[in-house]
Structures are given as structure tokens and as C-alpha cells.
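Tutorial sheet, problem 5. The two components below are modelled jointly, 656 residues in total.
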Amino acid sequence: MAIYIDPYLGSESRVFDLLLKISGCDPGLSSVPDVDSLDVRFTPKGAPSFSANRLREIVGSPKDVWIHGVDDSFMTVWGMPMIEYAGVTDVDRTASTQECSIWIDITEAGGLGYRSLDANGNYIYAPLAVILFHELAHVYHSLIVEDTPGDAAPDQLLAIADENQFRAQLGLPARNPNVTMHTIYGPATVGPTVLKGCNETLFPDLCKCNIATAALGTPIARQIVEFRRAKRDLEILTFCGAPVLAPMWNAYQVFSPLVAGRMLTDAALRDLMLQFGVQPAVHLLRIVRTYLGTSPVDATLVAEIERIIGDYLRAPSGSRDELLSAADAAAEAARMLRARVTVKPPKWCAVPQDLFTTIAFNVQVSGADSEGAAWVLDGIACFLRAAVERPDWIEEVGPTGQFCSWLAQVPLPAINAGIPQAQLADELTELRARIYRHPDVRKTFAHRVLTDFPALEHKLRAALDAADYLMPDTPKSIVLQVN
Amino acid sequence: MTEWLTVDNVEMARLPGGRNTAPYVTTHSSGYFGIRVSVTNHSAQETAYVTAAITGIEYEAQSRVLRVKFVAPEAVQYKQARPVLVEHVPLGPHAETVLEARIASPVTYLERVSDTRWTPQVVDVDTDVDRIELMVTYADKPPPSRLNLAAEPADIGATWRRAEGVLSVNRHS
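Model answer (C-alpha cells):
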């Protein structure tokens, strides 16, 4: 009595996206996690359309339809490679079966793309949503209304006719209604060759590349403005000529679109992100800015940080156990990223651990630099613990506390060996004045820099010395110590 | 019947780069193998229309044999499958050519566990295969490059033949 999406290979969100497109990006389409599937539900809320009506009929039928998003390594149930079909449906037209299966190659032939012939013999783009709709047409005629002629060729003609109605709805050129061809993978020769996603259709003004925007629902939220302002202000802090925060920011730019895209179709992920990701990050940023603008011995610092954490806890922030669980999950995700342990994505998002696993997974698959993301996750873990353990945690923001240690571990941009000695010393002096104000923190930072860039040890050591980062007990040779 | 197409050589090598499957799927991301099959038409008069795409891959676990088929659907009755065409290349008398294709590894099969349920089985070409057997079909008349589904299937009157080749990839000896 529904469509079930097989979570095998972690492709379920991609398959759901395709169904969303078929629904006309209808907000009434949702999915509910079950033991071994995502169960699709559809109560249309948007404008009716041919494809949305068809989807509603299939979802509402007493028959079960399983959709398996697979890759291009799959052989079909008939022993032929999936890329010769793009999508296949296994339904026994001669039996009174109650369920059937669809397999669809969600890798689009490993990136080659699928295509069809138009009436003029041109290759036209065959988007996955169209391919899935074509397979659902087979299901509809064979299993739901049982009006299929029974033979493969006439059945295919029916499915192509339905497909062309969906193509017209999407503004895509029609497929030749009768003629098929070989080599269905490869580029189209006439456009369009892309299909707008629901994100672009539903939220044309929304910057889908930004996790914070997707979580807060608008690019003009106060918190977004805070992020932008902080980025602008902190860009003046450089190391070897590059903004100190560049590795973190660059990583965010790379992995954020993947997570934000999924958040737009997964309400649970969006809620978790807001509660345990974005809001802690916003408040952490406020603490950082407070810390940078206040003397570490200033009595108002502790009170201000106490107030910021209190603000976070006054909003719906979760129970103590949830916060601790989220803190542990964020720290674990950071550890896995640093250790380059392959992260397996959760089948769905229900608890804070799923959130941070999803983030780590997307950092890895995006190819983003892991260090920048891991540092932010550590910061969030630090903040969440602070929220649970306050007021005891307040001492962590003191000069030798965990918070300062975290600041000292910020991933640094690639070092420019040609930077003049004087400029390097000026930069370190500025960092000392703004961030690394306590000798112990500077010592930690110096040790780390010398360890990370052993080839430039002499140059760095001189600059660090001039900027008062080296302590009497700083090892004379980091390289020797490592060896 | 004397076969006039021979498989002279089979080569297979891992292609550079990984599989372009991320971020949609999370496993099975090993890579591709490029396969090159050299064939010769020994006929003095006939043109051979050689199947130029992989249309079937079978695995025999006991003997660790992977059977790669460049086999025309017209030459084999694919049970229940909807009509599909594959590419053929014409090979003139005494001509040689190399058929090139790629195989994703691991290969994933669907094994039936009930009337309507299937479960995936994975074969890693790197570690699970000792021997690759090639089968190539060819015809003496050109197969269609377009198929009109609304028309009765036309009989092209071709005689289908097959040629075979073997590549030993045993890495354990």
C-alpha cells in the first residue's frame, strides 16, 4: 500500500528526490523510515498534474512497489547490464502479484548520462526523474490498473506515451513514441541537458549552498548576518598572507551544498541541524567574538559567556542527555574525519549522532579538506558540553582552558615559504593580540606550527620568537623530537 | 560450420580514476576495468557485423570464471526483457578491429530469494576472478540500429555465429 525505497547503497535520498520531482515538488510527499525501507506517503498539497496524480494513484494502491536505487555495476534480473536499460521493472504480468520492484541506475551510467531519441533522430536528455516515471508507468499499467497489452513491445509503447506526457509537463522534448535505439548512455545532442531540481523550483531565492540558510529558512536571518559579519571581520587575521579561517571556510563551501540539498527534502535532518548544529555554531561564534574583544582577565568575560550559553538554552535546545550525546557525536565525527576513517551515512536522521555522521560523510564524499570541518565539529562539541556543564565549564574559556586550546588548533592555510620574515612576525603579533593572548596558548600554537611545517622551522622559529610565542621550554628542534 | 571471426587477444586493465557514483551511493566505488577484445574476420567475401557492447556478464563462483558476453539480443532470447538493441560494427573481409568496453567493478548481480524479492551479490573483478571467458556474436547481415516498437519485428534473415576467447587473470598462482 505504498512505495518503498530500498536504502541499499545509501541511495534513498536520491530516489526520494526523483519522486519529489514527479510529484511536482509537492510538499505533501514525505517518507517514513521503516526497518528496511523508507515508506513513501503522498497527500498532495500542490497543484494537480498528470505525474502527481499518477504518483498518488500508485502510492494509494494496495500493491507494493519497491524502488531500488543502484549503481552502474548492476546486472538486471535478465542478466544484462543496467546501463543498457537505465531503469528496469520486474513485474510478472501473467500472475496476480501484489508487489513489484524497480531498479534505477542513480549514477546515470557512472556519469555518462542517459538519452533517448526524439522524432527527428536527435539524442535528447533522459533525466532520472523521467526514467523513474517511465518505470512507474510500467508498474501502473501492469500492476495497478492492469490494462497492459501483455507483450513487451506494446507495454513499452504505453510507457513511452506516459513518459512523453511527463516530459511535456517538465518542458522537455518528447521522445520518439515508437522507435528505440542502441547505446542509450552518452550525451544528448539537443537541449536541454539539465533538469531543474525541486530546490531551485521551490526556493528560487534560497542559497542552497549554505547549511545555515537551509536550516534557518531564509538567507536574511539575523544569524546569517552574524556569520557574514564574522567572516568579514576575521578575514583580517592572516597567516603567511592567507586568512587564518580560509581552510575552514573553503571546506564549508565544498561540502555545504551536499548537506543543504538533503536538508531541503529531509525535515528531520533540518530540525536536527538547526538544534544541534547551526544554533550551537551561532552561539559559539558569539563566544569567539566576545573572547576576541575582551581581555581574558576581564571579569565581564565570564558573565557574557554565561549569558550567551543561557540564550542558547532558553531556546528549544534538547535535554541534558541529548546535548551530551550530540557533543560526543560531534567529537566522534571530527575524530573520524581526522583519522580519515570512511564514514558510513545513516539510513535516516533521527538522533543527533545521525546529524554529525551525515555531515562527516558529506565532507568525505565532497572531497573537502577534513581538517577545517573537523575543527568546527570540535568547536560545536566544546560548546554543547559547555551548555550541559555550565557553570563549571566557564573555566574552560579561561586562558588555559579547552576553549582556548580549540582556538589554537585552527587549521592553518598552506604556508607560503616566500613570505617576508617581517610580515610573518607582524601576522603573529596580530594573532597574539587578538587570539593567542595567554602564554600557554601561544606555546601550544608555536609547537603546532613548528611540527606542521618542519621545512620552514628556522624561519618560523625566528618569527615566533620575535612575536613572543616561544617559551623557555619550547623544544629546540621539533624535528629531532618527532624522530 | 566454420567460424570466420576469431577472438585473437583479450586485454583488461584497471582504468584510471574512480567511479563517478558519489554522492549518490556510498559503496561499490572501486572503479572500472577497460576491456579490449581483438577480433579478425577471416572471410574473403563476407562482412561480419560484430556485437560491440557488453550485453551480459555472468559469474561462476566455483570456478571463479567471469563470462563477458558481446552477444546480440537477437541471437539470444532474453527472458521477459523488453526490446533492446545493441551496437554492431561492420568488419570487412580480412579486416581486424578491437572492441572496447568497460566493466564496473565490483559487478553486482541480483539473486532471486523469493518470487518478488532479490538480493544483490557482489563480484570484485580484482579478487574474485581467475579467468575471463569472452563470447562475441556476429552476423552476416546488418542488424537494425533502430527498432520500431509499433511494427512487427522484422526478420533480417541473418545467421548468427559466435567466437570465443579467454583471458587468464589468475593472481593466486
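Marking note: Chain A touches chain B through 54 residues (CB under 8 Å). Full credit if you identified this.
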